[in-house]
Amino acid sequence: MGGQLMGAAAGDHPEIKEEILRKDDRLLTLLKDVYVESRDPPVRVKGEGGEHLPCKQEEKRLTKLGHLEALDVKKVSKGKISIVEALTLLNNHKLHPQIWTAEKIAAEYSLELKDVNSLLEFFIPFTVQEFPKETKKAIKST
């Protein structure tokens, strides 16, 4: 309702409407010099007693670096593995399943047993086979 009254008042008085639409160059220049930087405060978890608890830091472990050391990360969070470690443990399990059991892999890499079982079930490394040169046939272009 207040906006309707103001609009009616400005419409009745052209000098008010002109004042509203007029830009103040001095204020615009000052406004361009304003710089605002905003940051959120660190998130804190409240306990039942109302005290603030510090943020939990993730536990890290050194990765098991093999011959691909230069390509791999050096540290990962506990409960996670790097790509090189995943490929290594999958290959070890494929070649020696009696030695590299899910339980041994879970213990060796600080993983949950259910995660290791899922990994072994759903991620199966494939084998690249190269055919001997004499069996290769040229593809004729049409």
Task: List key phrases describing it.
142 residues, mainly alpha, two-stranded antiparallel sheet, 4 strands, elongated
Please estimate the helix content: 40-55%
Please report the distance between the alpha carbons of the first and last residues.
Answer: 79 Å
The ordered string of helix (H) and strand (E) elements is: HHHEEEEHHH
**What is the strand arrangement across the widest sheet?**
1-2
Coarse morphology: elongated
Q: Average the pLDDT over all residues and give the rounded result.
A: 74
Question: Strand share of the residues?
Answer: 5-15%
User: Uncertain regions: pLDDT < 50 for 5+ in a row?
Assistant: 1-5
Number of helices: 6
**What is the number of beta strands?**
4
Look at the helices and sheets and give the structural class: mainly alpha
| Radius of gyration over C-alpha positions, nearest whole angstrom | 34 Å
Describe the 3D structure.
The strands form 2 sheets. Strands 1-2 form a two-stranded antiparallel sheet. The chain has a two-stranded antiparallel sheet with strand order 3-4. 41% of the residues lie in helices and 7% in strands. A hairpin with a 5-residue loop joins strand 1 and strand 2 (52-53). It is elongated, with a radius of gyration of 34 Å. The termini are far apart. With 142 residues, it is mainly alpha-helical. The longest helix is centred in the middle third of the chain and has 13 residues, at 83-95. It has helices at residues 2-12, 14-21, 25-32, 83-95, 102-109, 113-122, and strands at residues 45-46, 52-53, 60-62, 75-77. It has 6 helices and 4 strands; from the N terminus they run H-H-H-E-E-E-E-H-H-H.
